[in-house]
Amino acid sequence: MSKATSKSHKSAVSKPSSKADKSASSIDIGISQSHRQAIANGLNSLLADTFTLYLTTHNFHWNVTGPMFNTLHNMFMVQYTELWNAVDPIAERVRALGYPAIGSFAQFKGASSLPDAPAQPPKATDMIRTLVAGHEAVARTARALFPLVDKASDEPTADLLTQRLDIHEKTAWMLRSLLED
Ligand SMILES: [Fe+2]
Which stretches in the chain have pLDDT values below 50? Predict the structure, then answer.
C-alpha cells in the first residue's frame, strides 16, 4: 500500500453512521462488505486527489501570466474540465459500493495526497511543474488501489481506475513536454 493511500485511508471516510452501515451491509453484489468498504475508502482518496488537482488547475487557468499565456490558459481549461467531469463517476462508484462519498473542503484536505493550490500564483513554468507532480500523485493513488480491486473482482472500479490512469499519465506527459527544449 502506498504512503499516500495509507495516509488517506485514515481520514477519507468518517465512521459510517449505523444507518449507513446497515444499508451497506444489506448489499449483495458478490463483493464482501470489508472489500467494498476498503475500495470505497480508496476511491474517496482518489476523489479528494482529483478535486484538489481540479481546483489547482482552474486556479492556474485564472492566474497564469507570461508569453505562454494563451497556450496555458486554454490548455488548463481543457484539463480542469476533464477533472471536473471525472469527480462524478468516482463519487458515484463509492455510492454503488454502499458508502458515503466525501464532499467537503475539510474532508478533501484530510484525504488528499496533493498539497492545496498555492496562495500566491507561481510563474508559468512552476505551474506546469506543480501540475505534472499532481497528475503523477493522482496516478499513484489510483494504481495503489488495483491489487485490492483485483482481489475483489471489482471490474467496474478497475475499469474506472484504468481510465483515470490513462488520462493522468497522458496529461503528465503533455505538461512535461512543455518544459523540454
Ligand atoms: Fe475561463
Answer: 1-11, 14
φ, ψ at 103 (rounded to 5°) = -170, 40
- Asked if 49 contacts 113 with a C-beta cutoff of 8 angstroms, the reply is yes
- Output the CA 72–ligand 1 centroid distance in Å: 11
> Rounded distance, CA 155 to CA 165, Å?
15
Longest C-alpha distance within the chain, in Å? 58
Between the CA atoms of 160, 166, 53 and 84, what dihedral angle is there, to the nearest 10 degrees?
A: -60
Distance (angstroms) between ligand 1 centre and the Cα of 74 equals 8
Kindly report the backbone phi and psi dihedral angles of residue 29, in degrees, each rounded to the nearest multiple of 5, phi listed first.
-110, 10
| 135 vs 16: CA distance, rounded Å | 30
Residues 99 and 63: their CA atoms lie apart, in Å, by: 37
Tell me the whole-structure pTM to 2 decimals. 0.89
CA of 77 to the centre of ligand 1 (A): 7
Contact at 8 Å (CB) between 17 and 71? no
Query: For position 23, what pLDDT does the model report?
Result: 76
Q: Domains plus CATH for the chain?
A: 32-178 (1.20.1260.10)
